[in-house]
């Protein structure tokens, strides 16, 4: 007898068996909702080009309970997406050295959150004003 | 009887078993024991046929990578006190063919590593009479984290892309390539880019980040791969936009 | 049986084996090299060396100073021609490692940094943080991938040398993944199989360090030299025996007893201040420090831990930043394995078996008395380490003598034809029959029980301090164990990765090696370096300025002979450390 390496098949629910893999798949799946929201926005542009009535019905659809729910879900997934990506940004960039010491990962992540808050605030002010 | 702990170990003997099965062993609980000590106890006192790898017992030789309760761990660095009162399941590293019990076939990794010119590539051989190269502590710091890889392959077991794409070069090998690319003494990045920039190089990576989380030596292969993706993108652009670009 | 033809077979793919392989590949790319190891190269125990590698580097240093430190550190048992060659070659070998990419730690100006080390008069230890062996091993392994003439046979356990007309013509090994026996026919064989610390129960050595190569050579009639000299490293973690590098003391660490007192000043190593100071106190040689622990233990001044007596290694005063920069692994190991963060508390440590100064008898060219057989690294005894190795000489030694073994093997291989088919087959089949017998015979002796008995008797009889009584006792036990080993029971009869078989074969090797250690120690009725006899506390240069030569006689005990030490320019003197040493 001799060697007979056994290859274990990948578990069909491999991403459900491990928290880390589950979060990864969740992060990847957020793209579906980000895509969905982009489609909604594109539809808005089309409706706008079709005149005032079409645009109004689009706005009505958005503010209907279903519309609001869909947008909230998209917002939640987009926020999750942003948070997870902020978490990995320190890895995605070459280390920036200050006085020979790399900037700590948490500083980079915090910087992203601050920038996010500032931009969101700016958008709100512009739209609100 | 004093405290015990139950260890469930995946067993596979190609001479006898059509496929793997599990054996349970009840072993004494000792606060200072790591999983490797438990396996040694089992082999000595309960079942001499248990096969596993292990040597240094200090988390540097990289022999004893295995799955402990579904997480990739070094058996010599995984204390059973962290699993007190639980069933501890020990399996061979995920995503590798099982040779026997806890021993997996690592040849694939060695082949991938070998393909990456994992050594200092220089334009000229520096004569010994010229002494050593100069390298400042900052230049050393730029690649030093990526020199810490002990080839334990926990990252391969953690990476779903390794499981889904057989050809994927994988985290450790790419981190070692990055280690040389970032070394101020090296000029082999172009050479390595044949592999690193290819589909089965960095582009099979979807940035799961699990490799860096499980690395016992804080190598951060995920960072190495993302940084290589940036360099690879620049190389791609340069080849297309600049006159004299080759491909 | 498969016969693999090669020009040069190298057994062991740690630092010495890899260095030898690269040397052969560079010097003559036409030669076929088989690099055979029972583990993957990066698992070899070179990986665990921490502190550094010695080689003259500074303008205020010289070959003479390195020579003097090494010879006096070895208590004048070193062959001085070999030490001369070693100290002159070490710097270029370490430079070559730099050219191959070894990430040596650096000074601010970009020069390679050197640190002080025990028994060394000036700073000459090159280091890569506190993972020097790890970085050297991976640098060598990765560099070896460059050479197509090197074929690796990873996870092949070598069992026996093939001999034809008093020449080594190859070896036999088991391919672990299939269980098949393979013969390697080679014009020259280099053994680089490392030490045998595992004959002791409490050691820094990994599970793989079982003296296989030493035993293979010994059984083939090649003598083992100076086997009674076993180094205890003064700072291992209690319980596991994990090594805490001498670099910790090189950086300024202190050793204190249960009273918080720097006890080394009571053993000829003081005065304690100023500190740090080379060749004094905590930077004395390893034999003296380990012996001082034993005396403190007798006086009841050690610290009690759940895993036995210990003393404290204190590096708190270095501060977190320096500890993380220079000694990151020390911190990591102490936190993980004894639950102590050295930034805030002293690390409990005790002496632990670390290194076999003795080994396969080789000359300055790494050649053994058996034509065609060469040896380098810890498995060999050239001897540059004498009765006590200085820390950081061995990482340089594996390079210097690994490369030398490679060159000697080339020169030899060019002068001889390969071994004959007939002899290769016949000898290999004889080796196979021995293994098969293990599978077919129902032995009665349990291998783990024999191993425990061997470990116990080595610790109790052949430890830091020895006496005629303890040694006689151990010699008798070991002779009995070797007889019982003939009836050893192989429990696992399968083929693929039969690690039970490997452990049984390793035990056989260890018993042979242990016996040479005990018998040579019994024969040496003096105290020198790491060999300390309670009944003969003085060094005796009249009778024992000689190497012990243990030869396999076919009987149940080795014959112990002697050979004069090579003295070229340093007459034996007193070893002076502490205040008188600088």
Automatic annotation (TrEMBL), chain A:
Transmembrane segments: 21-46, 66-88, 108-127
One family name in Pfam for this protein: Fumarate_red_C
InterPro entries: Fumarate_red_C (IPR003510), SQR/QFR_C/D (IPR034804)
Keyword Glycoprotein among record annotations: no
Keyword match Kinase: no
Keyword annotations: Cell membrane, Membrane, Transmembrane, Transmembrane helix
Cellular component aspect of the GO annotation: membrane
SUPFAM superfamilies the record matches: Fumarate reductase respiratory complex transmembrane subunits (SSF81343)
Protein name: Fumarate reductase subunit C
Gene this protein is translated from: frdC
UniProtKB/TrEMBL annotation, chain B:
Required cofactor(s): [3Fe-4S] cluster; [4Fe-4S] cluster; [2Fe-2S] cluster
SUPFAM superfamilies assigned to the protein according to its UniProt record, in alphabetical order: 2Fe-2S ferredoxin-like, alpha-helical ferredoxin
Entry annotated with the keyword Iron-sulfur: yes
UniProt cross-references to Gene3D superfamilies, sorted A to Z: 3.10.20.30, Alpha-helical ferredoxin (1.10.1060.10)
The protein's Enzyme Commission number: 1.3.5.1
GO terms for biological process, alphabetical: respiratory electron transport chain; tricarboxylic acid cycle
Enzymatic class: oxidoreductase
InterPro entries according to UniProt: 2Fe-2S_ferredoxin-like_sf, 2Fe2S_fd_BS, 4Fe4S_Fe-S-bd, 4Fe4S_Fe_S_CS, Beta-grasp_dom_sf, Helical_ferredxn, SDH/FRD_Iron-Sulfur, Succ_DH/fum_Rdtase_Fe-S
Keywords: 2Fe-2S, 3Fe-4S, 4Fe-4S, Iron, Iron-sulfur, Metal-binding, Oxidoreductase, Tricarboxylic acid cycle
PROSITE patterns: 2FE2S_FER_1 (PS00197), 4FE4S_FER_1 (PS00198), 4FE4S_FER_2 (PS51379)
GO molecular function: 2 iron, 2 sulfur cluster binding; 3 iron, 4 sulfur cluster binding; 4 iron, 4 sulfur cluster binding; electron transfer activity; metal ion binding; succinate dehydrogenase (quinone) activity
Domain 4Fe-4S ferredoxin-type: 139-169
Quaternary context: Part of an enzyme complex containing three subunits: a flavoprotein (frdA), an iron-sulfur protein (frdB), and diheme cytochrome b (frdC).
Family: Belongs to the succinate dehydrogenase/fumarate reductase iron-sulfur protein family.
Name of the protein described by the UniProt record: succinate dehydrogenase
Automatic annotation (TrEMBL), chain C:
Entry keywords, A to Z: Electron transport, FAD, Flavoprotein, Membrane, Oxidoreductase, Transport
Pfam families reported in the protein's UniProt record: FAD_binding_2, Succ_DH_flav_C
Matches recorded under Gene3D superfamilies: FAD/NAD(P)-binding domain, Fumarate reductase/succinate dehydrogenase flavoprotein-like, C-terminal domain, succinate dehydrogenase protein domain, Succinate dehydrogenase/fumarate reductase flavoprotein, catalytic domain
Boundaries of every Fumarate reductase/succinate dehydrogenase flavoprotein-like C-terminal domain copy: 451-577
Membrane topology: Peripheral membrane protein
Residues bound to substrate: 233, 245, 354, 389
InterPro entries cross-referenced by the UniProt entry: FAD-dep_OxRdtase_2_FAD-bd, FAD/NAD-bd_sf, FRD_SDH_FAD_BS, Fum_R/Succ_DH_flav-like_C_sf, Fum_Rdtase/Succ_DH_flav-like_C, SdhA/FrdA/AprA, Succ_DH/fumarate_Rdtase_cat_sf, Succ_Dhase_FrdA_Gneg
GO terms under biological process: anaerobic respiration; electron transport chain
Reactions catalysed according to its record: a quinone + succinate = fumarate + a quinol
GO molecular function, one term: flavin adenine dinucleotide binding
Active site: 286
Cofactor list: FAD
Residues of the FAD-dependent oxidoreductase 2 FAD-binding domain: 7-395
Subcellular location: Cell inner membrane
Primary subcellular site in the record, as a coarse category: membrane
Presence of keyword Membrane: yes
Entry's Gene Ontology cellular component terms: plasma membrane
Residues at which FAD binds: 12-17, 37-52, 212, 378, 394-395
Enzyme Commission number(s) of this protein: 1.3.5.1
Homology family: Belongs to the FAD-dependent oxidoreductase 2 family. FRD/SDH subfamily.
PANTHER family in UniProt: FUMARATE REDUCTASE FLAVOPROTEIN SUBUNIT (PTHR11632:SF82), SUCCINATE DEHYDROGENASE 2 FLAVOPROTEIN SUBUNIT (PTHR11632)
Protein name: succinate dehydrogenase
Lineage: Bacteria, Pseudomonadati, Pseudomonadota, Alphaproteobacteria, Rhodospirillales
């Amino acid at each position: 007898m001799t060697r007979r390496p056994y290859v274990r098949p990948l578990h069909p629910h491999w991403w459900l068996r491990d928290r880390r893999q589950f979060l990864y798949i969740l992060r990847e799946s957020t793209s579906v909702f980000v895509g969905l929201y982009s489609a909604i926005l594109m539809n808005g542009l089309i409706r706008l080009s079709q005149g005032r009535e079409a645009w109004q019905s689009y706005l009505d659809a958005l503010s209907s309970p279903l519309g609001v729910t869909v947008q909230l879900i998209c917002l939640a997934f987009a926020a999750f997406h942003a948070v997870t990506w902020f978490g990995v940004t320190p890895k995605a960039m070459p280390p920036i050295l200050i006085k020979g010491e790399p900037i700590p990962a948490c500083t980079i992540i915090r910087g992203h959150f601050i920038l996010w808050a500032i931009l969101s605030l700016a958008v709100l002010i512009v739209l609100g004003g | 009887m004093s405290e015990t702990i139950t260890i469930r170990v995946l067993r596979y003997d190609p001479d006898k078993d059509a496929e793997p099965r599990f054996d349970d062993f009840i072993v004494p609980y000792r606060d200072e024991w790591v999983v490797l000590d438990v396996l040694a106890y089992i082999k000595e006192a309960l079942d001499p046929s248990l096969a596993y790898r292990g040597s240094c017992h200090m988390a540097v030789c990289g022999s004893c990578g295995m799955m402990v309760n579904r997480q990739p761990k070094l058996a010599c660095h995984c204390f059973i006190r962290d699993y007190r009162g639980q069933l501890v399941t020990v399996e061979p590293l995920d995503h590798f063919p099982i040779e026997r019990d806890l021993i997996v076939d690592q040849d694939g990794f060695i082949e991938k590593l070998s393909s990456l010119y994992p050594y200092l590539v220089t334009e000229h051989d520096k004569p010994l009479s010229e002494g050593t190269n100069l390298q400042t502590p900052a230049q050393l710091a730029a690649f030093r984290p990526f020199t810490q890889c002990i080839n334990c392959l926990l990252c391969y077991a953690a990476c779903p892309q390794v499981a889904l794409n057989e050809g994927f070069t994988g985290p450790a090998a790419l981190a070692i390539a990055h280690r040389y690319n970032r070394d101020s003494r090296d000029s082999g990045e172009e050479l390595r880019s044949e592999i690193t920039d290819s589909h089965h190089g960095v582009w099979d990576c979807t940035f799961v980040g699990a490799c860096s989380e499980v690395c016992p030596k804080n190598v951060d292969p995920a960072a190495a791969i993302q940084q290589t993706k940036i360099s690879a993108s620049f190389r791609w652009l340069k080849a297309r936009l600049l006159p004299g670009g080759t491909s | 049986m498969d016969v693999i033809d090669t020009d040069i077979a190298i057994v062991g793919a740690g630092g010495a084996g890899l260095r030898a392989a690269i040397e052969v590949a560079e010097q003559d790319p036409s030669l076929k090299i088989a690099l055979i190891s029972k583990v993957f190269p990066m698992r070899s125990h070179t990986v665990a060396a921490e502190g550094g590698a010695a080689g003259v580097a500074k303008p205020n240093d010289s070959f003479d100073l390195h020579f003097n430190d090494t010879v006096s550190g070895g208590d004048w048992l070193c062959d001085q021609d070999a030490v001369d060659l070693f100290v002159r070659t070490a710097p270029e070998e370490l430079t070559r490692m730099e050219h191959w990419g070894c990430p040596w730690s650096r000074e601010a100006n970009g020069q390679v940094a050197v640190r002080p080390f025990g028994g060394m008069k000036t700073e000459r230890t090159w280091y890569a943080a506190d993972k020097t062996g790890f970085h050297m091993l991976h640098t060598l392994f990765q560099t070896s991938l460059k050479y197509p003439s090197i074929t690796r046979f990873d996870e092949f356990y070598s069992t026996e040398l093939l001999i034809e007309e008093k020449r080594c013509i190859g070896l036999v090994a088991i391919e672990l993944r299939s269980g098949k026996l393979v013969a390697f026919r080679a014009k020259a064989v280099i053994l680089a199989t490392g030490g045998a610390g595992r004959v002791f129960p409490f050691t820094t050595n990994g599970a793989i360090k079982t003296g296989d190569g030493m035993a293979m050579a010994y059984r083939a009639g090649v003598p083992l030299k100076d086997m009674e000299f076993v180094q205890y490293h003064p700072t291992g973690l209690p319980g596991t025996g994990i090594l805490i590098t001498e670099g910790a003391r090189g950086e300024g660490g202190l050793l204190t007893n249960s009273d918080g007192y720097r006890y080394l000043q009571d053993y000829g190593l003081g005065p304690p201040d100023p500190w740090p100071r080379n060749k004094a106190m905590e930077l004395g040689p390893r034999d003296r420090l380990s012996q001082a622990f034993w005396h403190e233990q007798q006086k009841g001044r050690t610290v009690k831990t759940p895993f036995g007596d210990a003393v404290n290694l204190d590096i708190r005063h270095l501060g977190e930043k320096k500890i993380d920069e220079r000694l990151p692994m020390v911190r990591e190991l102490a936190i993980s394995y004894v639950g102590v963060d050295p930034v805030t508390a002293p690390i409990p440590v005790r002496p632990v078996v670390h290194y076999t100064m003795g080994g396969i008898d080789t000359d300055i060219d790494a050649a053994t008395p058996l034509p065609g057989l060469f040896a380098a690294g810890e498995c060999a005894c050239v001897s540059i380490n004498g009765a006590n190795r200085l820390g950081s000489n061995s990482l340089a030694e594996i390079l210097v003598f690994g490369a030398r073994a490679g060159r000697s093997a080339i020169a030899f291989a060019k002068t001889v034809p390969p071994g004959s088919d007939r002899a290769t087959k016949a000898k290999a089949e004889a080796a196979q029959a021995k293994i098969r017998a293990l599978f077919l015979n129902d032995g009665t002796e349990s291998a783990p029980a024999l191993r425990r008995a061997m470990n116990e008797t080595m610790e109790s009889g052949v430890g830091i301090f020895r006496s005629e009584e303890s040694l006689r006792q151990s010699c008798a036990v070991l002779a009995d164990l070797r007889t019982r080993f003939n009836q050893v029971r192989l429990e696992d009869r399968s083929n693929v990765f039969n690690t039970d078989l490997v452990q049984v074969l390793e035990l056989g090797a260890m018993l042979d090696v242990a016996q040479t250690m005990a018998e040579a120690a019994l024969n040496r009725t003096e105290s020198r370096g790491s060999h300390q006899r309670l009944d003969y506390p003085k060094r005796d240069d009249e009778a024992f300025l000689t190497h012990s030569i243990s030869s396999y006689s076919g009987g149940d005990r080795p014959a112990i002979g002697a050979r004069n030490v090579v003295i070229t320019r340093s007459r034996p003197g007193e070893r002076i450390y502490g205040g008188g040493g600088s």
